[in-house]
Design a protein that fits this description.
Layout: H1 4-73
Length: 74
């Protein structure tokens, strides 16, 4: 018949194993979520750079048109 100490140690060991499995699973899910967020952030950053480039081109085009207009009126 197993002693109380053996049963206690076995229970603690099993609890630790299940806890480790639970934490490992949770960490895997969190890593996946972090990777998805990184991907979303990178996509957003690329979109912002593209928008910034488009706005810069538009502003430069309008400035050139204003320069031409002002030089033709002078």
């Amino acid at each position: 018949m197993p002693s109380i100490i053996d049963l206690t140690l076995t229970s603690i060991t099993l609890a630790c194993l299940f806890g480790t499995l639970f934490l490992s699973n949770r960490m895997t899910k969190l890593k996946i979520q972090i990777d998805e967020k990184k991907s979303d952030t990178q996509t957003t950053e690329e979109n912002l750079w593209e928008l910034n480039t488009d706005l810069s081109r538009s502003i430069l085009t309008k400035l050139r048109l204003l320069d031409r207009l002002s030089s033709s009126q002078a």
